[in-house]
Write a structure and sequence with these properties.
It contains eight helices and 13 strands. It is α/β, with parallel strands linked by helices. The structure holds pimeloyl-AMP and magnesium ion. Magnesium ion is lined by residues 42, 209-211.
Length: 287
């Protein structure tokens, strides 16, 4: 893709904050402002050709205005010519875990993460953070000690400047159609997870949608690919989030610069699979 443009959207709802943090008169102004806090409703981002900007912006606005998390009262759209040639990568392979109950979903995610080398402490911390209020971005925690590294605890880190070429998207649609999972939600999540896992400092990712009616989540890693987990949460639950498990001692500024700013585009798709048991998945690491 030549001369791609980055398009980002975020939609929020203002709400009265429960917290009152008046500590000193100097903080009064700040406290008054922070009484109104923003609840994250939805977000989207991608790299596109200039000729696609208007269509994409329309689609993003439509998404922002009609969202199951609620009515947005603020929508921010950023459109930038990034003036750089994106690097190209191959998408992770997709597989879906055989799972029918929400009791099992969380356990399966834990198994996959343990198999990818994440400690129990880090996994427990991740689920605890995901259960809280939804954030705009992802949490970064270290894979061994479970230390949280992202500096802005309310926002997290928002992965951006990522996309897929039109020919790779067609190929991906063909792959996903074979398993009846060719939706924009799956495609977008796969593009994001593929960028994240292309970063060597990230070992694995876990994602649970914050949409109350979307109950499939995933665990992604270079070892096991993009592993979809049906019923990772119960319907009606509005909490969700993403956690990236990173190597201990990672240079956090470099890592965030990579995730937020490095232009990267998927130009190739891996062969995908249908439904497999966790044992099948764990016995065939794909790389
Ligand atoms: N960068 C970092 N974190 C993000 C980003 C981003 N670009 N987009 C979303 N998040 C975080 C944020 O905390 C959200 O609250 C959370 O992820 C969930 O986002 O194959 O819909 O957009 O069927 O609700 C998974 C698809 C769908 C599984 C995930 O996520 C499948 C989804 P949502
Ligand atoms: Mg969502």
């Amino acid at each position: 893709m030549k001369n791609p443009w980055s398009i980002r959207m975020r939609a929020a709802k203002t709400a009265k904050s429960q917290k009152s943090r008046v500590k000193s008169p100097n903080l009064k102004l700040k406290t008054q402002n922070s009484k109104m806090s923003e609840i994250h409703i939805s977000g989207a981002e991608g790299l596109y050709k200039k000729s696609e900007i208007q269509t994409v912006v329309n689609k993003y606005i439509e998404r922002a205005l009609n969202h199951s998390r609620g009515k947005a009262d603020k929508i921010v759209i950023t459109i930038e010519d990034i003036k750089q040639q994106p690097e190209t990568i191959t998408a992770l392979p997709v597989v879906t875990i055989k799972n029918t109950t929400s009791q099992e979903g969380g356990k399966i995610a834990g198994h996959l993460l343990r198999a990818a080398g994440i400690s129990k402490i880090a996994i427990d911390k991740a689920f605890e953070l995901i259960k809280r209020d939804s954030m705009r971005g992802a949490v970064l925690i270290t894979a061994e000690h479970g230390r949280r590294l992202d500096p802005d605890k309310e926002r997290g880190v928002r992965v951006s400047r990522l996309g897929i070429t039109n020919s790779a998207r067609k190929q991906l649609s063909i792959e996903l159609m074979r398993y009846r999972i060719n939706t924009e939600t799956v495609q977008d999540a796969l593009v994001l997870a593929s960028k994240v896992s292309s970063c060597n400092h990230v070992i694995a990712e876990v994602c649970i949608s914050d949409d109350p009616d979307y109950t499939t989540g995933y665990v992604a890693s270079r070892d096991f690919g993009y592993t979809r987990i049906p019923h990772i949460k119960n319907k009606g639950n509005k909490s969700g989030g993403r956690v990236f498990f990173v190597k201990e001692g990672v240079d956090i500024r470099n890592l965030i610069a990579y995730l937020e700013r490095k232009p990267l585009i998927i130009s190739k798709v891996s062969a995908c699979k249908g439904i497999e048991s966790i044992d099948e998945i764990l016995s065939h690491p794909h790389l």
